[in-house]
Design goal:
Its main location: cytoplasm. The chain is of the alpha/beta class. It has 20 helices and 24 strands.
């Protein structure tokens, strides 16, 4: 089919970290092979498209961020379609298909996509293709790949029906001939993120490169004891399969090396979320003993001379760099160790085939190479399949090339999930495992995503500690393993721990003549307010807090704030407060033993603690986990939630705690209401909907 006869559809994406954009670009690349042309735009570019007059089918790829919010790039769009004055037939002319991205680890799974989908339906828009909801918890590709596969037939059918409506039945082109044997009903593809419901059979090339390789000439070396698959080794059937691999992404970046003269951009220029503040770290305390399983630190920031504002329950973000040693290793592998301090100019490659190619916004037009690798690129990011596909072309060894092809192929999906995604493999790990792979700097800049600022819960009250902001975190540890040759610390937590080491272990050299710190480290931060996770507006309303481990962090701020309010307003009525805290060992990681002070002065009404790894000689073993303690207080919990219309807050690990706490609350409601479990789940859903059951969780 010639270019002029290609039928158009509108392709919109709304992205926070680049995943939705990458998927939209994959759809755009495949469209041509199906005789279609995708008119692709970021959903924020509302001057380049108009849904009010759009006649062609619309495909939307949208992610979810925060606590179920649409991405920042979709905020104006969502605000526009949420206009309550719009009539119910406002989009009656519109046909669309929507692919939502989310993570079921979080409470409002795919809520960004669901919000847009629901509102378009309310305004009269019609699906031409069933909505897909992809789950990053199990692997986006498990839904994304079959959704894209089914998209082409649905698009062609929608365009064919559109032709009929326009009275163009006599126009028989390649699209209509493709549909000659297909039913005219709109194609539906029921997609679920549950792996057992997915069929990932090979349905042909569908725009991908087809790789058929006989392995007679390839020697995949494995040790005698290596009988199973690994990052570098495959077994049948993958090792003997013809492979469906993604199309090679077009190159679009070129890098020009310059001299070493000049200044790097200020860190604030890297952030689009709002005003950044460079603030000193005035205090650092290790809250756990040296023999604790995890190291928890409390840091205090001086924000007195800034316009930084926060409420207890808010979060804020820390702008952090990559590890210096990892940047040096990457420079060495790229053969650029001598050029780290050279300024580079990053621009779009002339003649690129990438549609709408532009320099990534997180890459300065001119800065040193070290600045880009240190502050701009997430070099720890898990490589996407498109990156693996590009790395194939940079690999000289036949066996290594084949294995990279397998890892990015449809047939190697489970190997990709196991050995790359679930193993948290990064570019450095890949280059160590596949030594003949020598990617260019421009390729790395194209495929490595933006280095994201890290978010932390505030653990203080500006009312209690004016001009100070505290936060608590565990220093994250990634042990070495089969796919990772060395152990690593978290990008931000490892950097912060090293930064404040002089505060934790002061030496004589770091003290001035008065015995005080002679210099203070500064970090760059910006606020990220939480719209819901705040104290009840009415202080007489009781509330329950559940925060094991560092999940207790925001509740320290809650209690500090409540204490000051009680001191300042002795005539107010204050509701009772419950705190459920748990950790492994009472003597090693009981983070805030001063909780007793809140209990003694009446700020905290009830404190319930448990220690999951401490042994007990009692006849009846004490509860190990916070959900167990909640069940022991079932009547009180039900009273606070049902009779007194109180609030319930959870903060901490999603997978290993928050879900178990939710189950415990359902059990409590069921038992105390003498209702079945389904009815109790409905009550919990109502509590969530009314913002009285609130979570601040992470995976």
């Amino acid at each position: 089919m010639c270019c002029e006869s290609k039928r158009r559809f509108l392709l919109l994406y709304a992205t926070q970290k680049g995943q939705a954009k990458a998927i939209a670009e994959e759809i755009w690349q495949q469209a041509g092979a199906h005789g279609l042309e995708a008119d692709m735009h970021c959903i924020s570019e509302m001057d380049k498209y108009n849904l009010e007059t759009e006649k062609d089918p619309v495909v939307i790829v949208i992610s979810t961020t925060g606590t179920g919010d649409p991405p920042d790039t979709a905020r104006k769009f969502v605000k526009k379609i949420q206009d309550k004055t719009l009539p119910p037939d406002h989009f009656a002319h519109l046909q669309y298909g929507l692919l939502g991205l989310g993570d079921s680890e979080y409470m409002f799974f795919c809520n960004g996509g669901r919000t847009v989908d629901r509102r378009l339906q309310e305004l009269g828009a019609q699906h031409f293709y069933e909505t897909g909801l992809a789950d990053d918890c199990v692997g986006l590709e498990l839904v994304v790949d079959p959704w894209i596969d089914g998209l082409w037939l649905a698009l062609k059918e929608a365009l064919h029906l559109q032709k009929e409506k326009e009275g163009m039945n006599n126009a028989v082109d390649a699209v209509s001939s493709t549909l000659a044997t297909a039913p005219h009903a709109v194609h539906e593809l029921k997609l679920s993120s549950e792996i057992q419901n997915l069929k990932l059979e090979d349905e042909g090339a569908r725009g991908s490169d087809i790789l058929s390789q006989k392995l007679d000439n390839i020697n995949l070396v494995a040790s005698a004891q290596d009988t199973g698959p690994s990052l570098v080794h495959s077994v049948p059937p993958v090792s003997q399969s013809a492979l469906n691999i993604p199309a090679l992404p077009p190159e679009y970046i070129e890098v020009e090396f310059q001299d070493t003269q000049g200044e790097n951009p200020h860190l604030s220029s890297l952030i689009s979320e709002g005003t950044t503040f460079e603030v000193p770290v005035t205090k650092a305390v290790q809250l756990t003993r040296e023999d604790a399983v995890k190291t928890a630190l409390l840091l205090e920031l001086d924000i007195a001379d800034t316009a930084f504002e926060y409420q207890p329950g808010d979060a804020f973000c820390v702008i952090c760099p990559n590890s210096v040693s990892e940047v040096e290793k990457l420079l060495h592998i790229l053969g650029l160790s001598e050029k780290g301090d050279n300024f580079v100019c990053v621009k779009v490659k002339q003649g690129t085939k990438k549609k709408g190619a532009s320099r990534p916004q997180h890459i300065p037009e001119r800065s040193t190479l070290k600045f880009i690798l240190t502050w701009c690129l997430e070099i720890r990011a898990i490589p996407k399949k498109a990156f693996l596909r590009a790395l194939v072309e940079c690999t000289s060894d036949a066996g290594e090339k084949r294995r990279l092809q397998e890892l990015c192929s449809r047939q190697g999906a489970s190997d990709y999930t196991c050995f790359i995604r679930d193993s948290n493999v990064c570019l450095l790990d890949l280059l160590h495992a596949f030594p003949s792979c020598k990617p260019s700097l421009s390729l790395d800049i194209e495929h490595l995503p933006k280095l994201q600022a890290r978010s932390y819960s505030v653990s203080s009250s500006n009312l209690y500690q004016p001009g100070r902001l505290c936060f608590v975190f565990n220093v994250v540890e990634f042990p070495a393993g089969p796919s990772r040759p060395v152990s690593r610390k978290g990008v931000c937590t490892g950097w912060l721990a090293e930064l404040v080491s002089p505060l934790l272990h002061p030496s004589k050299n770091s003290l001035d003549t008065k015995g005080e710190r002679s210099s203070t480290e500064k970090i760059s931060v910006f606020p990220r307010p939480n719209n819901a996770f705040h104290l009840p507006a009415d202080p007489s309303v009781p509330f329950i807090m559940v925060g094991p481990g560092t999940g207790i962090s925001p509740f320290i701020g809650f209690l500090q704030h409540r204490q000051k309010l009680r001191e300042q307003h002795t005539d107010w009525e204050f509701g009772e407060t419950w705190l459920f805290f748990g950790c492994r060992h009472q003597d090693r990681d009981y983070l805030f033993k001063q909780l007793r002070c809140f209990l003694e002065n009446g700020t905290l009404t009830h404190l319930k603690v448990c220690f999951s790894r401490d042994s007990s000689t009692a006849e009846v073993a004490p509860p190990k986990y916070v959900q167990d303690v909640l069940r022991l207080c079932a009547k009180e919990v039900a009273r606070v939630l049902l009779k007194e219309r109180g609030y319930f807050y959870i903060c901490g690990d999603k997978k290993h705690m928050a879900d178990d706490v939710s189950d415990a609350v359902v059990d409590i409601l069921s038992m105390e209401m003498e209702a079945d479990r389904l009815e109790a789940m409905k009550i919990l859903a109502m509590l969530r909907e009314s913002k009285r059951y609130l979570q601040d969780v992470w995976s």
